[in-house]
Amino acid sequence: MRFSTLKDIVEICQVESLTIAELMIAEQAKETGESPEEIVNQMTAYYQVMKEAVSKGLESNTSSRSGLVGGDGRKVNELITSFEPSVGVWAAKAMAYALAVSEVNASMGRIVATPTAGSCGIIPGVFVSAQERFGWEDEKLVHGLFSSGAIGYVIANNSFISGAEGGCQAEVGSAIGMAAGALVELRGGTPEQAVHAVGLALKNTLGLICDPVAGLVEVPCIVRNGLGAVNALAAADMALAGVRSVIPSDEVIGVMLEVGSKMPGEHRETALGGLAQTPTGRKLTEQIKATKSPS
Amino acid sequence: MRFKDVFSIIGPVMVGPSSSHTAGAVRIGRVARQLLGCMPEQAIITFYGSFAETYSGHGTDLAIIGGLLDFDTDDERIQNAFTEAEQSGLHFELRQSTLMSPHPNFVEITASVGGRDITVSGASIGGGNIKIHSINSFAVSCTGYYPTLVITHDDQVGILASITRAVSSAGLNIGFMNVDRKERNGSAMTVIECDKRPGDEVLETLSLLPHISRVSVIDLN
């Protein structure tokens, strides 16, 4: 890839009059030796899986294997028809869809890791609701996934994307930044604005620990996906309004590496700290262990 | 760069719940299966770190078995991998280790068939991406992003030249390569990540070269 930082992305896009998505497609084609069409086709197939996961999460039973969670995406989606959501209808939709996809994941259903399975609800939540809202064609959203991918590529290679390595900031935080940046571009913002959205979003997940109850990608992960989708919309709006990340986004990514590296092991997906070790967290862990058939 | 391309960030398509604990685990299992070259009869799977703590809830055990059955990350049969294994004649044993490991999500798999076995250890580094750390006690470093040649051979003068000559004659570009040996003039392993899948012809050429004992291909695509 010709870029390793978000600054590189902005510079190349400005000099060559490219969108982030166009740059990513060209670089991916060079990396794999495939044609841009083949690459776009693969991403189109991924987007279909995301849309199917939204539908499945809203329509079918999404009880997780542990029985801890399920059905919350549907609850939020149904409430919208009879109640004025405090965050507004469209943010509530994004939230419902993100919850739905994350629940499909917890039930061992089919999803796309974006960038991980633990954070797989945020991008589909933002993208599918935006598509409904603005009447965009699939092709536009597929391009948006390449913008998200370029941003995620920079984050992953300069910091981390897994909760085990860097806490939940690395998973849900990365996904929020990826969704926010892509949404800026989808709505006509410049690459520079998109990159500011990444910084604005990431700054507000710094220090977020990975503390899954019983170590499962359920509590608090699913709810963090729902709220993450709303954060992504907010960060995108700020960037489109011209709000800048005063600390450059690449430096924020560097801080995520610093904070994640200093996080104690208890707060990095081990289920030895945080919500997992609250009295209720411990009780649920015991219940799950006791009821689970030995495998 | 640890992450090579856009689809290592957006993707893989997978069955949940965890890209590290499920998708990455499927891939490590598949690497073991492909190195063995056929359906194993026995497998011993040892989980370390977070894998050892949470494998059951995440279906990491199902995922590794699914990989040993050569399922891809989005194969919905992973949920029923134990039943599928039984039907395929694959017996397995799951172990948890409290020893330190090179990565929080780490597993070692020994798969065997008819007196032959292969031992693979690897880490699941996030987003379904993996890093293989060792194969049959040789230190290796490969990711499964690319079709990968794994060649066991004697540590001899000129052997690498003959391997790379055969690979280049087949029109294959070498992206990454590493070599490890047990001892001087002992046995060695060369791992070559190629830009496209090696054809049968080059595999045959390689396996006929002197001092080469085994040639395998990992291809997770």
Automatic annotation (TrEMBL), chain A:
Pathway: Carbohydrate biosynthesis; gluconeogenesis. It catalyses: L-serine = pyruvate + NH4(+). Its EC number is 4.3.1.17. Its cofactor is [4Fe-4S] cluster. InterPro entries: Fe-S_L-Ser, MmgE/PrpD_sf, Ser_deHydtase-like_asu, Ser_deHydtase_asu. It is an enzyme of class 4 (lyase). Residues 17-276 form the Serine dehydratase-like alpha subunit domain. Keywords: 4Fe-4S, Gluconeogenesis, Iron, Iron-sulfur, Lyase, Metal-binding. NCBIfam families: sda_alpha. Belongs to the iron-sulfur dependent L-serine dehydratase family. This is L-serine dehydratase.
TrEMBL record, chain B:
The keyword Transferase does not apply. Pathway: Carbohydrate biosynthesis; gluconeogenesis. Residues 148-221 form the ACT domain. It comes from the Bacteria. Coiled coil: none annotated. Keywords: 4Fe-4S, Gluconeogenesis, Iron, Iron-sulfur, Lyase, Metal-binding. Its cofactor is [4Fe-4S] cluster. It catalyses: L-serine = pyruvate + NH4(+). InterPro entries: ACT-like_dom_sf, ACT_dom, ASB_dom_sf, Fe-S_L-Ser, Fe-S_L-Ser_bsu, Ser_deHydtase_bsu. The keyword Iron applies. Belongs to the iron-sulfur dependent L-serine dehydratase family. PANTHER family: L-SERINE DEHYDRATASE, L-SERINE DEHYDRATASE, BETA CHAIN-RELATED. This is L-serine deaminase. The lineage of its organism: Bacteria, Bacillati, Bacillota, Bacilli, Bacillales.
